[in-house]
Structure formats: structure tokens, C-alpha cells
Design a protein that fits this description.
transmembrane, 6 helices, mainly alpha
């Protein structure tokens, strides 16, 4: 198990981070305040669960016997979408309300995901 984590340390760190963000969003029921018409929907537990499921998926991919490149691409695409959505939403919240949100750190995480996706091997033995 540790060898698999050593083989993919960035994926393992990303998995832990996505689960942590998901747990934070799951616990905090008043995190999103803008846009006001959608704040109830955004503060729903489903949004936090999406991050948790994605993090568990990435962690599972790291620990799985055979790491399929197609699954890696799907998980990293989902992660980049979730983080981009969160970053843009927090940036727009900061602009519209004047309240600082953590959009800068989330943009760094989004860039990390995109770099990880770019550098990940897109080939495996089962792809044709």
C-alpha cells in the first residue's frame, strides 16, 4: 500500500485534500452566501459529498491494483471541474460582496490539478 502511495504521492495528497474540502463543505451549512438565490442549493450537503466522492475515487485509484489511465483522466477532469467551480464562485463572491473568500488558495489547487493532469501518464496496458 505504501509503495502505491509512493508511486503517486501527488494523487494521494489531492485525494486527502478533496476529502478535507468536502468534509468542510459538509459541516459548514452557511459557507456560500452568494448568489443569494442559489445559496441554499450550494450549501446543501450534496456539494460536499461530490468533493468527498471525488477524493475517495482518487484515493481508490491510487490504491487499486491496476491504475487505468481512463479512470485517472475521468477523476482528474472531475476534480478540475469541481475546483474551478469553487474558485470561480468564491472569486465572484469576493467581487460582489467585498468579503474575502479563499479563492486564491483554491486557484492554486486548481492549477495543481491541471498540472497533475498534464503530467499524468495517459497510457496503460488496457487502453487500445
Amino acid at each position: 500500500m505504501l509503495n502505491k502511495i509512493r508511486d503517486h504521492p501527488t494523487h494521494a495528497a489531492l485525494a486527502i485534500g478533496m476529502v478535507a474540502i468536502g468534509l468542510f463543505l459538509l459541516i459548514n451549512n452557511h459557507y456560500f452566501i452568494w448568489p443569494p438565490h442559489y445559496s441554499d442549493w450550494l450549501n446543501d450537503d450534496v456539494v460536499g459529498f461530490l468533493f468527498i466522492v471525488d477524493g475517495i475515487g482518487i484515493g481508490g485509484w491510487v490504491l487499486w491494483e491496476e491504475q487505468l489511465a481512463v479512470i485517472n483522466r475521468l477523476l482528474l477532469t472531475t476534480t478540475s471541474f469541481l475546483m474551478s467551480f469553487l474558485t470561480i464562485l468564491q472569486l465572484l463572491t469576493s467581487i460582489s460582496t467585498g468579503i474575502y473568500t479563499s479563492w486564491i488558495s483554491n486557484s492554486i489547487i486548481t492549477a495543481f490539478v491541471l498540472i497533475l493532469a498534464r503530467r499524468s501518464d495517459s497510457r496503460d496496458s488496457s487502453d487500445n
